[in-house]
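PROTEIN FOLDING TASK:
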Amino acid sequence: MPRVSEEHLERRRRQILDAARRCFVRKGVHETSMQDIFAESGLSAGAVYRYFKSKNEIVAANLMAVVGDLQAFLVDLTTGDRLLPLDEILEAIAEKLTGLSGEDGPVRLAPQAWALAMYDPDLADHLTRSFAGLREIWGAYLRRLVGEGRLPAGTDVEAASKTLFAIMPGYLLQRLLIGDVAPQDLKRGIRALANAALVARPVV
C-alpha cells in the first residue's frame, strides 16, 4: 500500500485548521465544539484526532501559523539592504494585520487565544516563545539603527523592543473592536511623537 505523501498530510492538516478557524471566528472558541470542527471540515473524529489531540491544540496551531507568518514578514522588513525607517515598518505591519483581519481572517482569533493562554499552560508556552521571537526581531532592528547612527549608542534596546512589540496587539484590538484605525494612522502617529521634548530627561 503506498505511503501517504507529506503534501497530502499537510493539506489535510490545513483543511482542519481552516475549518476550525472559521468555526472559532463564527461562534467563538468556547462555543465551538470538536463536533463543529468535524462537520465544518467534512472529516471524521478519527481523522481530526490523528492530527490534533484537543481543541486548544488546534487554537495554538492556528495562532502559531499566523505568528510565524508575521515573524517572517518582520524579518524581511528589518533586514533588507535598505534600512527602513520605523514609521514605514509600522505602517507595513499594520497593513499586514489589516489584511489578515477580514471577515474570516486568522488574526481575528488572536484575542480569544490570548484569553485562553491565561489558564492553558501549553498555549501560554507557545505564545511566550513566539512573542519573545518577535521582540528579538525588533531588538535586532533597533541594534541596526544604533549601528548606523540613527539611534544614540546608549539606546535601551530591550525596553524599546518591548514597546514596539506592544504596538502590534494594540493596533489589532483597535482594528477589531473599534474599527476606526488604519495603517496610515500608525505612520502619522509615530511621526507626531518623534519629538525629544515629549519625554522626561534621564536622571544623571
